[in-house]
């Protein structure tokens, strides 16, 4: 289930809010101009599924969203865990790519078709950690400071939407904040 945990940016060990109530999560995010919507999930994405085939599964929703919001480019990010050293190295490198605070010149729009990943949104003096699950469509406004953790064993398939070919390029803030905020595995361990 989707999870939201809110922390002060200067004391991330303090939990201001932790909820799995979807309506509450959507409301809190909307106060920050972040939209959380749901799409129906169209079954398991098997390892080896081509990127085009994944997008095709959600063709109706993808086309509608692109037409409504002026999004022109789509791609996918897929991680299906494997127990090989090569896979673990690739996963570690991919995880590091998104683990530093950055912002984009356009909205960050991501749909989770499968698995789990956490977006950390740094809005004013708080960090909102949004653990996304299959069916979640998250839209983060351009300019929002954020980072993403796919966890130590990445297992997710996401569709990404862009206005421009280079919409994914990040402007890194060089704020080390991401290093002091609980990562995805620690956030989920809070359930135990
Ligand atoms: C969930 S897709 C991978 C993360 C990503 O695309 C991004 O831009 C993180 O900031
Ligand atoms: Fe991003
Ligand atoms: Ni980003």
Automatic annotation (TrEMBL):
Q: Which residues are listed under the site May play a role in transmitting local conformational changes?
A: 107
Binding residues annotated for Ni(2+), in chain numbering: 102, 104, 108, 146
Among InterPro entries, the record links this protein to:
ARD, ARD_bac, RmlC-like_jellyroll, RmlC_Cupin_sf
- EC main group: oxidoreductase
User: Which residues bear the site annotation Important to generate the dianion?
Assistant: 110
Q: Which GO terms describe its molecular function?
A: acireductone dioxygenase (Ni2+-requiring) activity; acireductone dioxygenase [iron(II)-requiring] activity; iron ion binding; nickel cation binding
Record's signal peptide:
none
Keyword check for Oxidoreductase: yes
The cross-references to Gene3D superfamilies, in alphabetical order and at most eight, read: Jelly Rolls
Q: Which residues bind Fe(2+)?
A: 102, 104, 108, 146
Provide the reaction this enzyme catalyses: 1,2-dihydroxy-5-(methylsulfanyl)pent-1-en-3-one + O2 = 4-methylsulfanyl-2-oxobutanoate + formate + 2 H(+); 1,2-dihydroxy-5-(methylsulfanyl)pent-1-en-3-one + O2 = 3-(methylsulfanyl)propanoate + CO + formate + 2 H(+)
Cofactor or coenzyme needed: Ni(2+); Fe(2+)
Query: Which spans of this chain does the record mark as coiled coil?
Result: none
| Keyword hit for Oxidoreductase | yes
- Which E.C. number(s) belong to this protein? 1.13.11.54, 1.13.11.53
Question: What note does UniProt attach to the cofactor annotation?
Answer: Binds 1 nickel ion per monomer. Binds 1 Fe(2+) cation per monomer.
**Where does the record place the site May play a role in metal incorporation in vivo?**
101
Give GO BP annotations, semicolon-separated. L-methionine salvage from methylthioadenosine; L-methionine salvage from S-adenosylmethionine
Subunit (UniProt): Monomer.
Tell me, what does this protein do in biology? Catalyzes 2 different reactions between oxygene and the acireductone 1,2-dihydroxy-3-keto-5-methylthiopentene (DHK-MTPene) depending upon the metal bound in the active site. Fe-containing acireductone dioxygenase (Fe-ARD) produces formate and 2-keto-4-methylthiobutyrate (KMTB), the alpha-ketoacid precursor of methionine in the methionine recycle pathway. Ni-containing acireductone dioxygenase (Ni-ARD) produces methylthiopropionate, carbon monoxide and formate, and does not lie on the methionine recycle pathway.
Question: Per the similarity annotation, which family is this?
Answer: Belongs to the acireductone dioxygenase (ARD) family.
Mind telling me what this protein is named?
Acireductone dioxygenase
């Amino acid at each position: 289930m989707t999870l939201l945990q809110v922390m002060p940016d200067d004391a991330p060990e303090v939990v201001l809010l932790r909820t799995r109530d979807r309506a509450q999560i959507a409301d809190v995010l909307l106060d920050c101009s972040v939209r959380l919507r749901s799409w129906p999930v169209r079954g398991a994405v098997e390892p080896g599924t081509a990127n085009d085939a994944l997008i095709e599964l959600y063709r109706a929703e993808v086309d509608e969203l692109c037409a409504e919001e002026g999004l022109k480019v789509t791609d996918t990010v897929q991680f299906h865990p494997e127990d090989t050293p090569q896979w673990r190295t690739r996963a570690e490198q991919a995880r590091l790519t998104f683990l530093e605070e950055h912002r984009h010149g356009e909205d960050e729009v991501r749909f989770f078709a499968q698995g789990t990943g956490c977006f950390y949104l740094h809005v004013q003096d708080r960090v909102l950690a949004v653990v996304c699950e299959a069916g979640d469509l998250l839209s983060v406004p351009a300019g929002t400071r954020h980072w993403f953790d796919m966890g130590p064993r990445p297992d997710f398939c996401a569709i990404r939407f862009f206005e421009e070919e280079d919409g994914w390029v990040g402007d890194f803030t060089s704020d080390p904040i991401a290093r002091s905020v609980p990562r995805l595995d620690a956030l989920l361990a809070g359930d135990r």
